[in-house]
Amino acid sequence: MTNKRPVYLVTGAAKGIGLATVQRLAPQAEHVVMNVHRPIVTEHWAALTAIYPNISQLVADVGDAKQAEQLVNETIARHGRIDGLVNNAGITRDQLVMRMSTTDFMAVLQTNLVGAFNVLKPTLKQMLRQRSGAIVNVASVIGSHGNVGQANYAASKAGLVGLTKTVAREGARRQVRCNAVAPGMIATAMTDALPEAIRQQTLTEIPLKRFGQPEEIATAIDFLLHQPYLTGQVLTVDGGMTM
């Protein structure tokens, strides 16, 4: 990080963990660029910018390398640098392995893993030039222990961990750090869609007996962005689910 107020880029920022992260970072930032897949509606956007006037949104599908590169280049063109990147964009297409199509398997990897790489690559180039910067990839506990019906999601999140550790080694020579956060069950649209029986069963596996909140993951992301002697690590935030 520089001595100036930082510039952040957060992907998948329209809702959930991404939006909570934007709201966490905005008060301390010069600017926060929110990457969204579709424009945020006018009424919601007006309310958001009334509270956080130093945010903007850029539409891009991070799974498309050209769009991802344009997203990063536009951020740099407008603000001169990127001090912190949060790779949060992700999708799910759940199905048992024997029923999962190759199309659905690849679609999840394309957004969750390749998309992170697509944004990370040009951002890392800028950070190496700056000789500073921090990257946080949003992984998942599913990447560590798997989950029935989520082979594609688990593979993508496990891949993010390997990507994180490699970038941490490559970036360290110029003081660029890269870490990952691995959320457990977080109260978002994804978990809201789960059948109630599965929700209740999952709660029995969490020592704290509740789902986490997006704001709690945003707090962990904030910590990883700003702890200057931490790199190549995966911070698990799951209510004790995987201890």
From TrEMBL:
Keyword Oxidoreductase found: yes
Family annotation (Gene3D superfamilies): NAD(P)-binding Rossmann-like Domain
Keywords, sorted A to Z: Oxidoreductase
Highest taxon, organism lineage: Bacteria
Annotated signal sequence range: none
PROSITE patterns per record: ADH_SHORT
Gene Ontology molecular function: 3-oxoacyl-[acyl-carrier-protein] reductase (NADPH) activity
EC number, as in UniProt: 1.1.1.100
EC class (word): oxidoreductase
SMART domains cross-referenced by the UniProt entry: PKS_KR (SM00822)
Xref: InterPro entries: KR_dom, NAD(P)-bd_dom_sf, Sc_DH/Rdtase_CS, SDR, SDR_fam
Domain Ketoreductase: 6-189
Family listed: Belongs to the short-chain dehydrogenases/reductases (SDR) family.
Protein name: 3-oxoacyl-ACP reductase FabG
